[in-house]
Amino acid sequence: MFLIYCPYCKATREEEEFHNAGEAFIARPADPEAASDEEWGDYLFMRKNPKGWHWEQWQHAAGCGRVFAVKRHTLSYRIAGSWTLAAGKALFLQEGGV
Ligand SMILES: [Zn+2]
Fold this sequence. Notes:
The radius of gyration is 15 Å and the shape is elongated. The mean pLDDT is 95. The two termini are 26 Å apart. Helix content is 19%, strand content 33%. The longest helix has 10 residues, at 85-94. It has helices at residues 37-45, 85-94, and strands spanning 3-6, 11-14, 19-23, 53-59, 67-73, 79-83. The chain is an alpha+beta fold. The strands form 2 sheets. Strands 3-4-5-6 form a 4-stranded antiparallel sheet, covered by helices on one side. The protein has one domain: Folate-binding fold (2-Layer Sandwich). The site of zinc ion has 7 residues, from loops.
């Protein structure tokens, strides 16, 4: 178990109050009609699943209900921080989008 900071409630709570909503910042093909079946399949189903730092979406299900970005280490469960989706995406892109 670990603690997560909700950037909307401005409170740190136990993981049990939250739901993991998967990988954050998955790029949707700019023109879905022009995407190949492989590109569309990758967008829908392929995830990075890294061993290390990972950008995730979490929902504060037992709190405000909002979804936000968390950068979490998948081995140590250490959390680098929590941000609104917009602020998290700006950091994600600043890091090179990986
Ligand atoms: Zn909250």
